[in-house]
Structures are given as C-alpha cells and as structure tokens.
Design goal:
With 214 residues, this protein is α+β, with helices and mostly antiparallel strands. It has eight helices and four strands; from the N terminus they run βαβαββαααααα.
Length: 214
C-alpha cells in the first residue's frame, strides 16, 4: 500500500497530516506549489476537478474532501480504534459530528465573519448563536450524559475529533469562532495529542524549508 498526500501546509491538507499521524501508517507528502498555481495544473485537476487540496491517493484510489479522507482512512486503517465499527452504537454520533464540521461549522463561521444576510430557516447552520451552542454541547457532553468524557464520543478519541477539532481550531485561529471556555479547553486537549503535535511540527518544517509566508 502506498499513500500519497498532495500537500501544502497552508491548506486543509495540513489536517490530513494529523489524520495520517493518528493512524500511524507510512505515507509520502507531495508538495503542491500554490504560487505557481500547480494545484490548477492538468495533472492535479485530473485527480481533483476542483483543483484543490487535500487530494489523497491510496493505491490508486483518489479521495478528496477533508472529512471524507478522514472517514476513509479511519475505516480502512483504524476501524475499531479511530472509527467505530458498523455495529457500534456510537458510529452514528461519530458520523454526525464528522459531517457537522464541513457542512455547518465552516459555512456558519464564514457567514458570521462576512456578515452574510440569510434567513435562519433557509441555511444549514441556522444562526451563529445556535451553531455555537451546538458546538459547545457536543464537546461538553461527550457521547451521552452517562459518558461525559473529554471527546465527542466520551472517553474515546476518534477520527471525528480530528475532523471536528481541526475545524474548530482553524476557525479560532482566525477569530471566526468565539473563544468560549469549552471551546478553548477542547482545542488545548486536541492540540496536545502526540499526533497533532507531530503534524504541527511537520507542517511548520515545510513552511520553513519552502520559505512560505515571507
């Protein structure tokens, strides 16, 4: 098996590095130069018609979209550990919060930051306040009142925490999400994961090596 991640540290591919570090399988990073528009090259568009990152290739299988990549990797390489099995009653909760991140948190924060005018009943995120309350409830309550652990499934860390947590962390980094006590504490927990620290170091190293952000 050969996993190749087309990567730039200033893209959502940075999150996929964290996913791969959590799973613990070998992978290679292929740098995609944004400055020269390499992500829009015919070769990249053939893999991902959006011409965007992350784009992951696993034994010839192309997977795009951050949440889809996370769910795919967890199911293939860490089922029962980072992905609940299909007969596990917590699988629905895992899928719920994994998909809540790109479908609600990202557009909801963008709408709030950009002061978009939208009727709450006509958009998936409803109101910013309702979304913020939902995020807080998810990371405060665990899987259930009976298992109020530190993660979305209670005591158990899963790929849902990477997908959801990376989104929350990114939105806080750019002040697009309020720093409630629950959100701040959750970001501290996920950022302290050994795999998260390793991924942050890898991304920072590539920024330095490539002279990015200058």
């Amino acid at each position: 098996m050969a996993i190749e991640l087309f990567h730039h540290p200033f893209s959502r591919a940075a999150t996929v590095v964290w996913m791969l570090e959590e799973i613990g399988v070998p992978y290679t990073l292929t740098f995609v130069d944004f400055a020269s528009m390499q992500h829009k090259s015919p070769e990249m568009v053939a893999r991902n018609p959006m011409g965007k990152l992350p784009t992951l290739v696993d034994d010839g299988q192309v997977v795009t979209e951050t949440a889809a990549i996370g769910l795919y990797l967890a199911d293939r390489y860490a089922v029962g550990r980072l992905a609940p099995t299909t007969d596990d009653p917590t699988r629905g909760t895992s899928l719920r919060w994994s998909l809540y991140a790109p479908s609600v948190i990202e557009p909801g924060c963008a709408a709030h930051a950009g002061k978009w005018e939208a009727r709450a009943g006509a958009v998936g995120w409803g109101t910013y306040e309702h979304m913020l309350g939902t995020i807080t409830a998810a990371i405060h309550g665990g899987a259930s009142a009976a298992d109020p652990g530190p993660w979305l499934l209670g005591a158990r860390f899963t790929m849902a925490d990477v997908i959801f947590g990376a989104t929350v962390r990114y939105m806080r980094r750019f002040n697009m999400l309020d720093a409630t006590p629950a959100i701040t504490e959750y970001i501290e927990r996920i950022s302290d994961r050994p795999a998260a620290r390793a991924a942050d170091a890898i991304n920072a190293r590539i920024v330095a090596e490539r002279g990015l952000g200058r």
